[in-house]
Write a sequence for this structure.
């Protein structure tokens, strides 16, 4: 399988380049040269396959030029080692829980798969691979957990001091081993600027083989299509028909992965794009005008994105035709007050605790069903509610914390404080190699 950049479709690169480069030099996004069809014997037998069987069948369509089936199996075995269960709220409204991985958010699927692919690509090489990642919270935790203990790879995380939640900070700073945390006295944008400048610096690149683990890496997208098949399978076995997926969205990676699943043959009726006040894509779906703007802060902050990075991939999949995209995708947006009311309503009606991102999805699912009565909708629940206690507890009272999270709050934070000037960061990087 070769990959092309959305900005120059005629230039194709191999898997290794697409993965280690992450972002093409022309600033486009890597896409598979063709979307492979899942063999019909797999699609027709989903209900007899385990989640790992399904993940393997999908992954090998993309990896088989570069990895043997045994290698892909091994990779899936390590990366996709937790479930994605569907819970039903009503006959036709369902929740796909994507938070059963180590960082309690769906980003674990992408991060773990990417870590497994990258480590295999650099296996046996002399030089260690160093992943630089700037995080505003969730991504860093998933990437750190994904790469923990992976041989020949180290991860350096830059996070903004005082601007990630206490639990998120613990997830970034307590792992040790091949994970190093830098606490930057600045904003997320400052962290991102340091990473970008490091990639262009000659002295650093002489000492390090650098790569990035940001959300536009194609290997974060591929595994996110696994669970669309898995969810469909779980509904099918309950004898249900046409299925729609509702995706709480920020950078639209999750939704784009759903589009890939549909192109691979999964019979999805519609996708429902649910956003908070950052409603650039719902506006586009209604008007045909794509107008990025600065993000606004909300209580579903992992979706506070003003210029969704996967939008160009979505456009590419529809041949840049707005009319075609809006046949497949519905878009709805909600305020924080509506979201809080939804958290309360879901708890009262169904005794189910949904995080603020999932609650935005719930509102969109209901709005869609109002005009499509009787259709099945699966809402993607993108994170565990306990990751958002400052929002959840004032609405529902103390919702508690699962053991996995409680454990890390006792661990000791280890982070190196740094200023935002590039020279300090560069000196720190070079001095480790001296
Ligand atoms: C990252 C994230 C999202 C947004 O996902 P995209 O793929 O960027 O659209 C939604 N919810 C949670 C909890 C997240 O961490």
């Amino acid at each position: 399988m070769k990959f092309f950049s959305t900005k120059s479709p005629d230039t194709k690169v191999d898997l290794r380049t697409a993965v280690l480069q992450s972002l093409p030099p022309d600033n486009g996004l890597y896409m598979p040269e063709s979307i492979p069809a899942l063999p019909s014997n797999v699609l027709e037998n989903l209900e007899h396959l385990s989640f790992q069987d399904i993940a393997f069948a999908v992954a090998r369509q993309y990896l088989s030029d570069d990895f043997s089936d045994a290698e892909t199996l091994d990779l899936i075995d390590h990366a996709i080692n937790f479930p994605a269960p569907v819970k039903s709220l009503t006959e036709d409204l369902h929740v796909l829980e994507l938070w059963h991985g180590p960082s309690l958010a769906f980003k674990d699927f992408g991060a773990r798969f990417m870590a497994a692919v990258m480590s295999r690509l650099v296996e046996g090489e002399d030089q260690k691979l160093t992943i630089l990642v700037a995080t505003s919270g969730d991504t860093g935790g998933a990437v750190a957990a994904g790469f923990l203990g992976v041989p020949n790879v180290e991860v350096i995380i830059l996070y903004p001091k005082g601007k990630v939640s206490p639990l998120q900070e613990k997830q970034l700073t307590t792992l040790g081993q091949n994970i190093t945390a830098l606490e930057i006295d600045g904003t997320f944008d400052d962290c991102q600027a340091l990473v970008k400048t490091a990639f262009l610096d000659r002295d650093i690149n002489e000492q390090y083989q650098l790569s990035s683990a940001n959300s536009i890496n194609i290997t974060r997208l591929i595994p996110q299509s696994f669970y669309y098949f898995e969810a469909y399978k779980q509904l099918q076995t309950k004898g249900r028909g046409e299925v729609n997926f509702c995706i709480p969205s920020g950078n639209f990676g999750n939704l784009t992965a759903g589009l890939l699943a549909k192109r691979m043959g999964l019979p999805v009726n519609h996708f429902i794009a649910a956003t908070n006040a950052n409603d650039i894509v719902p506006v586009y779906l209604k008007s045909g005008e794509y107008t990025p703007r600065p993000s606004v802060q909300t209580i579903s902050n992992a979706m506070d994105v003003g210029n969704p990075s996967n939008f160009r991939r979505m456009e590419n999949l529809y041949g840049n035709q707005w009319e075609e995209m809006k046949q497949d995708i519905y878009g709805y947006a909600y305020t924080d007050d509506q979201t809080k009311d939804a958290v309360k309503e879901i708890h009262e009606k169904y005794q189910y605790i949904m995080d603020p991102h999932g609650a935005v999805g719930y509102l969109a699912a209901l709005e869609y069903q109002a005009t499509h009565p009787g259709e099945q909708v699966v809402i993607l629940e993108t994170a565990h509610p306990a990751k958002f206690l400052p929002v959840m507890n004032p609405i529902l009272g103390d919702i508690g914390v699962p053991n996995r999270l409680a454990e890390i709050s006792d661990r000791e934070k280890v982070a190196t404080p740094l200023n935002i000037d590039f020279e300090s960061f560069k000196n720190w990087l070079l001095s480790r190699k001296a």
